[in-house]
Amino acid sequence: MSLMIRGKPDDDEYWNSSKFKAFTFDDEDDDFTRLKESKRAVNSILVEDEDEEDEVEKVNWSGEPVGSISWSVKETASNIRSTGEVRDLSFPKIDTAPSLPKNSSGYSLSSLFKGKAKTGSLQSFSESFSEQSLRNYAPELRKPKSEYKDYISDWTPEETVKRMQQGKAYSLEKFHFLQDKLLLLDEAVNAHDGNVITAVLIFLKKSLSKEILFRELIAREIALRHYIHYLKEMGEHKHLVELFKSLGRTEDMALMQYRDHLNIKDENRRRDFLKNCLSLPFSQEDATHVLDHYTLLERQIIIEANDKHVESSSQADIFKKYPRKASILNMPIITTLYYSCFYHYGESEGTYSSPANIRKTFRISDKQFLLTCLGARAKLKAWFDVDALFTTKNWLGYTKKRSPIGFHRIVDILHKNNAPVQVLQEYVNLVEDTEQKISLAQKYKCHDVIINTYRDLKDRQLLIGYREKVERSSPEYRKIEELLCNSQIRWKN
Amino acid sequence: MAHSVRRDAPELPDFSLLKRLARDQLIYLLEQLPGKKDLFIEADLMSPLDRIANVTTLKEHEVDKLYKVEHKSIVSTSDQLCFLIRPRIQTVKWICDVVNADKAVGKFRRYKVIFCPQKFYACETLLEEQGIIGDVTTDEWSFYLLPLDDDIISLELPEFFRDNFLEGDQRWVRTAGSALHLLHSLYGPFSKVYGIGRCSKMAYESWREQVKEGEQRVRQADIGNVFLIDRDVDLVTPLCSQVVYEGLVDDIFRIKCGCVEFGPDVTSSDKSMKVMLNSQDKVFNEIRNEHFSQVFGFLSQKARNLQTAYDKRSGMDIKQMKTFVSEELKGLKKEHRLLSLHIGASESMMKKKTKQDFQEMLKTEHSLLEGFEIRECISFIEEHINRQVILFSGLLPKDYRSLKAQYLQSYGVDHLLTFSNLKQLGLLVEQQPGETLTVMESRVGKLVNDKTAGKLTDAFSSLAKKSNFRALSRRLNLVPKSDEEYDLRVPRDMAYIFSGAYIPLSCKLIEQVLERDGWTGLEEVTRMINGHEFAVTAGSNGSDPRGRSDAQRIILVMFLGGCTYSEISALRFLGKEKGYKFVVVTTAITNSARVLESMLDNHA
Question: In chain A, is it the N or the C terminus that has fewer CB atoms within a 10 Å radius of its CB?
Answer without folding.
Answer: C
